[in-house]
Amino acid sequence: MATIRDVARRAGVAPSTVSYVFNGSRSISEETRLRVQEAVDALGYHPRASARTLRSSRTQVLALALPRAAGLQDSVDGRFAIDVSDAANALGYDLLLTTSQDKAGGLRRVALSGLADAAVLMAVDMEDARIDVVRELAFPAALIGRPADENALPWTDLDWEEAAALAVGELAAAGHREMVYLAPGESEVRGRRSYALRGIAGAHRGARTTGAAVTVVHSVNDPGRLAHRLGALLGDRTDLGAGGPPTALIVQHPSAHHHILTSMTAAGLRVPEDLTVVLIGTLPGDPSSRRLPRIELPVETLATEVTRLAVAAAEALREAGGRSAEASTRLLAASVGHLLIRPVLLPGTDPLGR
User: Fold this and answer.
1) Each residue of 93-126: pLDDT tens digit?
2) pTM of the complete model
3) Domains of the chain
4) Distance CA 326, CA 255 (A)
5) What is the pLDDT of residues 277-305, one digit of tens each?
6) Burial class (CB in 10 A: 0-12, 13-18, 19+), 29
7) DSSP symbol at 326
């Protein structure tokens, strides 16, 4: 069966343009409209009207689309689920949780079921397939995550790129010249997960701006493998290389935070005497990261904002008679409140400056 992306490819336009032709939410040239219509006719594509029909009455339910693999526990996902539920209840909505790893298919089932008025989407990819589903079905949704097409849907997110660049900049200002950036796992990067790519981009930008050497490596979920990888990278102090050993480790992988200090101890390193560790994306109040400089993930603020955006999208769709509303966004700045970084002491330096 043809999809909206197939129509867009044949017509030589973006999927959003096809959506705009269907719902009339933006002005489209006659030439473009005709190309889209020819592609629709050639492919036999029919926009789904059933979702609009099923949503003719309110359910007062929001769906939280949180793809996850069976058996994996993630405290970040759990915290978001609770805070989105609280925010939804405050606005008079119940919460329906869907965890299908088939992100587009799972959302399509929810949209066509008529069980929810709108959806909150997590685990956002840069080019997220669920955006096409939302456009095709005119199903209101908002994202916790910043897609490549920032005008596609309402979204909110921490400024991961700025957070990483800020961490590198603060470390460089404290005298650190050799750093390691522990990014999310390779599967997150291959899947083009937004927060992962933007964090890595920020680390590279911070390196260019400060002139510091920043080595990007990928995390792993297994604590033993993580300790081995960090030990191999940081533990051998005999071969320092031209630039010397890394004096700072920046950690973006949320699930790795709990294992970092244990891994450092296993590598024979003292924190912060031998190595300064900075965390990005920790949960507020997490006792395992309290003693380390960090940029916290504002979970409650993000959950409250995305819920408000999803409800507003549902209301706007009703008022517009089924036409999609303009996307609104909110990018949260990285807070420097907890980035208290100890200045690096070079060999032979008196800590009192004498």
Assistant:
1) 999 999 998 999 999 999 888 889 999 999 999 9
2) 0.77
3) 4-158+302-332 (3.40.50.2300), 160-296 (3.40.50.2300)
4) 35
5) 898 988 888 777 777 888 888 999 999 99
6) exposed
7) P
